[in-house]
Every structure is written in structure tokens, then in C-alpha cells.
Description:
Blueprint: H1 2-16, E1 31-33, E2 37-39, E3 50-53, E4 56-57, E5 70-80, E6 83-94, E7 100-103, E8 107-111, E9 123-125, E10 133-137, E11 146-155, E12 161-171, E13 196-197, H2 198-205, E14 210-216, H3 225-230, E15 235-242, E16 251-252, H4 256-265, E17 269-275, H5 281-295, E18 304-307, H6 314-317, H7 321-337, E19 342-347, H8 348-353, E20 363-366, E21 378-388, E22 396-402
Amino acid sequence: MRKKLILMLITASLLTGCGYDKYEMPKDAYINLKENNYLVFETIKMSDLVKDTNVEILNKDEEIVNDKTGKHTVTLDYKFNKRTYKFDITYELLDNESPFILNAASSKTVVKDSEFDPCEGTNFIDNYDREPKCRVEGEYDISKVGNYSVQYIFSDEANNETTRNLTIKVIEEVKKPTTTTTKKPTTNQKPTEPTYNIQEYINKYKFDDTMIGIDVSRWQGDVDYNQVKEAGVEFVMMRMGVQSGSKKDLEMDSFYEKNIENAKNAGLKVGVYLYSVALNPDKAREHAKWVVKNLKGLKLDFPIAYDWENWQYIREYNVSIHDLNMNFEAFADELKKNGYEAMLYSSKYYLNHIWNNRKDYPVWQAHYATETEMDKNGIMWQLSDKGRVPGISGNVDLDIYYLD
């Protein structure tokens, strides 16, 4: 009886595939690997790691870690001669992009013998590194008057560098004049700035495939939307909420409810935008949920615009270009779950240099010019902030929507 039981156990072991090393390559099977060096954030599937093989890869479409530089190991599952095996593969993610300069003066003037940090006031961001560095190379002497030519060096943890020339001008302390001067008489008149009548824009930009619109916030105050519509405006994008700082909560624009109600009653098409300072995906999703909650099921005529533009504080935020893009994607994903579509708002400059995922979403491009170039997914153009429209006191932003 005991011998019979042992025989049964051996037979069961063979039938279930136990008793062999799943990590040992079976005879006649082969898996040849590629070099397997990739750029960080590049989309990589398990099958991308294999050059050629005669086994059946079971998890070939599985996406693998792509957001952390360095070496990583993953396990490939495969079948050969009706048995399943595992095979460990090591790959490396590299960062070859240099920091991007947002602001760095080409010339700085400093008083002799004063404290001076040439990197102070510079603004820059990296695609991966959340804390890129700034230094200056070249000789200068704050104790001696003169002009010194040096270089900014902006670098990341992978030693990618971006350089820019800087002239440091060391001057003697400027003494205040001891003699009194006669002040010129002042007036209450402010210098006038050019403004543009809405009719000019309608004549120039209204076609069968365009709509003329405006975007508003509390800064426009009370708006007579009946007059706005009579003037030829066809749609209104309005600020729904604003986050005035990264540590502050979202607040409803004080004129939003009045704007949305009166614009719809006047027969205008409507859309909304959110001014966000979200610094992580969780906060961006929270903002999207806030928008959905406060829309209360309201149907909109345009995608909901995500407006992030606190570039002057970027060094304080410790975020990367990738982080900003992931935050917007989290916002868009949360809206999609609730039946709304997201749109990215930004100036043409930042669209070209920061928002890598702009090609995956509708875009509202700000570019104050008489003409512009847009990506194929650009659906709206904000072309001026100095429009004049009947029914609105003061200036208002002017927009064009491109129909499909």
C-alpha cells in the first residue's frame, strides 16, 4: 500500500508540472535579448526587451517600469513544450534631457562689495529631476568694478547641462543726489493702451468653420450677455474656480454662477476653465472632482480647460516637467470617469516646451498675435487680452473656436 501511494504522488507531480526549475532554460529553447537601454518615461512592453526567441511569451504586452532611472529587473513568463517558465531580464532607463530655462537674465548689475548670488532670480525646470541645480562658471570679483563674462550652468542629477551667457556688472554704490530737483507736474491720466473692437475681429476671423468668443472671470464684473451676443459673440469660456496658492483650497470664482446663468439665458454657448496649482496627481484629481460636483450635471459646449501657469514659483514647488504632465492627465482622467472631457490651456511657448502630452488632448492656445500655428488638436485660440465688447466694462480676452 505504501509503495502504491508513493507511485501515485510521483505521477501527480509529473502531471502538474512540479519537480522542475521554472527559471532553468529548457533544452532547445532560446531567448535572445536586445541591448535594453531606454529613455526614462519611454513606453516599454515586455516584448520590446526580446530580440528573437522560439518560446511563447505569455506576458508580452505587459508594460514595465519606465519612470525611474537606473537598472531594473523584470520577469518574463513564457511557455515551451506545454510547460511554463520564467526568465529574468535586466534593463536600464537613462535620462538624456537637459534642464529647460524659463528665465535667466543675460546681464546683472551688482554694487561693489555687496552680497551676490548670480543664480538668484533664475527659473528653470527639468524633465525628470525635481531639484536641478544652478551654478556659474567663470571668474568675477565683487570687490572690483568692472564687467565680467561668465556662464550659467543648469544641471540635473544625470549631469545633463544647459548653459547660458551672463555678464556681471560690478559698479560703485550709487549716491543719492544732494541737490533738490524740480518735479514735473503730474496728471491723473494713465497711458492709453491699444484696444480692439470685437467687430474688427469678427470681420477678420469669422468664417463658416469658426466661432468668435470671449473668456471672462470676476475681473470683468457684471456682464450684459444680451449685448455681448448682439455684438456678434457666439460663446463664452468662464473661470469656474481658482486656487490662489499651492497650499490653498479651490475657491469658486465670485461671478461664476451669475456668468454661467446669464450667458446661457442669452443663448450663448458656454464652457468653463479652472485655475489650478495642483502639484501632484491626487490634488489634480481632487480638483477635477470639485469641478464635477459644482457643475451639478450641467451640460457644457466645450471641454473643461485646465489652466496651470504659476511658473514664477516653479523652483519652490520641486516638480518636474513629467510631474506637471501627469497632474494634467490625472485631472483629465477623473473628468472622463464623470462624463466630461478635459482641455489643456497654455501659452504657445509653454505648449511647445513643457506640455509633452498636449498631442493627446484638445488644446486652447494663448498666443497674442494676428495669426498663429496650432497642433492638429488645437481647437481654440486666445488671441488678445485687450478686446472691447459692448456689455463689458474694460478689456476682455478674445477667442476663436475652430469647428470640426
